């Protein structure tokens, strides 16, 4: 009797494991393996080199003012976009994943705005208490 | 019974676009449908790391805006004398190229990992680690150079005192990330080389079987380190 129960339990456990295995395979099937042609990586790699050279040349030629800042930001965003989209495979993920990861860092811009005002105010008080600077 | 339900849920076509976002996040289910937990958790770790580096760059911005003293010109500070002439920022440019090269080799390693090419994957990962170590070595050279020139966290010979503290904090933290990345690259490369992901050998720390996806998860971390450098390069060195 006891043996039979144990056997029954064993069978039950076996069945449970089997179901779990099947579930795991199903999930594994649903997970996408990122396999893309090597050429794509080489093209992106080349672009990263070109963009880095461009941003270095901005400094080398000593560009100034808004031209310099806008060029730096453009090259930076292009490089970051290429790395995240292709090298980190974000371009092939579902939107739910993309938004979960990419939206929160964009909200940091609110913090940036707050700190720009705060820093301007600090500079203002420093100038009015200590003079315009050495 | 459970089997049927699970299979059924997994094979039903999922809605796309905004409806897809709502449907994926709604109710008691896993939000990231076709992403394994390992990958999702690495992404969430990277998100938190983004905030850490975001805060560093923010504090640097605040310090630079609010100081009355002129900021030292990075173009001159990081110039090197090569062949009798000063070349601006050249060391940082070389470091950038080294890190981008390592990102490329890592992307290749991930690709060959999924093709089950153990040899190429391991070699490319070790190459990535070597480039990463080169980067850290150049950073050590840069630190030594600046320290001998008198840069300290509390002051420097050229201008605003906050330059030193921002520099050591930001590049130091980034260098730490690169170093940790190199160590883990070597560990994963060894596993690939030995065929752990083919034989299902349990890991020494987690006792769980690894998969070739581990190479991609490692790749996510490494590309993130490169990504952070893109921002540091733009805001700290070029601005």
TrEMBL record, chain A:
Segments crossing the lipid bilayer: 40-58, 70-92, 98-117
Gene Ontology CC entries for this record: plasma membrane
Keyword annotations of the record: Cell membrane, Membrane, Transmembrane, Transmembrane helix
Top-rank taxon: Bacteria
InterPro entries assigned: Cyt_c_oxidase_su4_prok
Localisation: Cell membrane
Membrane topology reported for the UniProt record: Multi-pass membrane protein
Predominant cellular place of this UniProt entry's protein: membrane
Protein name (record): Cytochrome C oxidase subunit IV
From TrEMBL, chain B:
Highest taxon above the source species: Bacteria
Subunit structure: Heterooctamer of two A chains, two B chains, two C chains and two D chains.
Assigned keywords, A-Z: Cell membrane, Membrane, Transmembrane, Transmembrane helix
Any one GO BP annotation for this protein: aerobic electron transport chain
A Pfam match: COX3
Membrane-spanning ranges: 40-61, 87-110, 122-141, 161-188, 218-238
UniProt name for this protein: Cytochrome bo(3) ubiquinol oxidase subunit 3
Function, as annotated: Cytochrome bo(3) ubiquinol terminal oxidase is the component of the aerobic respiratory chain of E.coli that predominates when cells are grown at high aeration. Has proton pump activity across the membrane in addition to electron transfer, pumping 2 protons/electron.
Record carries keyword Electron transport: no
Record PROSITE patterns: COX3
Keyword Membrane: yes
Membrane topology: Multi-pass membrane protein
Family: Belongs to the cytochrome c oxidase subunit 3 family.
Gene Ontology CC: plasma membrane
Annotated compartments: Cell membrane
GO-annotated molecular function: cytochrome-c oxidase activity
Domain Heme-copper oxidase subunit III family profile: 42-239
